[in-house]
Design goal:
The structure is a single chain. With about 260 residues, the chain is α/β, with parallel strands linked by helices. It folds into 2 domains: about 180 residues, P-loop containing nucleotide triphosphate hydrolases (Rossmann fold, 3-Layer(aba) Sandwich), CATH 3.40.50; about 60 residues, no CATH class. About 40% of the residues lie in helices and about 20% in strands. It comes from Pseudooceanicola atlanticus. InterPro entries: AAA+_ATPase, ABC_AA/LPS_Transport, ABC_transporter-like_ATP-bd, ABC_transporter-like_CS, BCA_ABC_TP_C, P-loop_NTPase.
Amino acid sequence: MITVTDLHKHFGGFHAVDGASLTIEPGTITGLIGPNGAGKTTLFNVIAGLLKPTSGKVTMDGEDITGLPPHALFDKGLLRTFQIAHEFHSMTVRENLMMVPADQSGETLWNAWFHRGRIASEERALREKADEVLEFLTIAHLADEKAGNLSGGQKKLLELGRTMMVDAKIVFLDEVGAGVNRTLLNTIGDAIIRLNKERGYTFVVIEHDMDFIGRLCDPVICMAEGKVLAEGTLDEIKANEQVIEAYLGTGLKNKEMQA
């Protein structure tokens, strides 16, 4: 589905991504791990159009998408979430979801004046879809809560819900477990697995919690110093000498990759 070929992203003399190449197969939940500064988030940002690469190529289903802006990739079904959730804090949870689909009739003044019936019909359909998403994510009881009042884990569920409001094909999740308690992390994991198996979503997950990676992800890709270091099952990655050496500075070897 996604192929990255010899990708580079330089910030002056710093090579955040330094010749990374990898393939994300459709229907997989791929884990992306590596020490801090490995280039994982920068790689996400380049693929998702937030940063333009210095060189290299990204294709999606055989189409060159290198450097396309996020809204163009959104239309193609490529979505990205962030380590820190980006909710509209003064709007309700349901309203946050209803805002996601593009090209709504109510966005133009002409339709607001002359096509109110069409707008009302669209809003009813969006409300029904939003409520279905909230039910799927087991947070229907929060539909009318202001999004800014949610816990960190609930905000991550809301971000996942946004991907369900459109026809997502592949979703890049950046540290979905950051600041999330274990119970909610399990709920998020359950939702990701269901979306993958029941709706065919492809996921790529940056995460430091190896229990979470082990539960969800196969294959797992390890990056270090802007390059892809190894790929395989989590057990294969944990036994790889290059991976162990790359992680030594963060104590991964001694903590059995639990950091």
